Amino acid sequence: MAVWLHKAIAAAKQGKLSEARRLLEQAGAEERQAAHELQTSLRQPEAGGQSTAVTLLMVRAQDHLMTAIAVKELAAEFVDLYEHIQS
């Protein structure tokens, strides 16, 4: 996903705003949705009162998911800023 987001920022910087928007949309949408669904399925048993063991792998996966979401939001802001500057 990060590669698509960096490409989106680079495209916006070059004035290729429609390409930048397309790259933002492509940036791991399916993978992000699958990760979110998996995360939800892991939390549901604990919300229902079942104890869940927290592993380092689970913590690391959560860290990666949240970082990817934050980077996508920041990349979208960069594209918006380049669009504003270039208009």
What does it look like?
The protein is mainly α and 87 residues long. Helices cover 83% and strands 0% of the residues. The chain contains four helices and no strands. Helix 3 (29-47) packs across helix 4. The radius of gyration is 17 Å and the shape is elongated. The two termini are 28 Å apart. The mean pLDDT is 90.
| H-E order | HHHH
Most strands sheet: none
Query: Roughly how many Å apart are the termini?
Result: 28 Å
SSE-based structural type: mainly alpha
The residue fraction in helices comes out at over 70%
Helices, strands, pairings?
Blueprint: H1 2-13, H2 17-26, H3 29-47, H4 56-86
Helix pairs in contact: 1-2, 1-4, 2-4, 3-4
Structure described in brief:
With 87 residues, the chain is an all-alpha fold.
Provide tags for this entry.
0% strand; mainly alpha; 87 residues; single chain
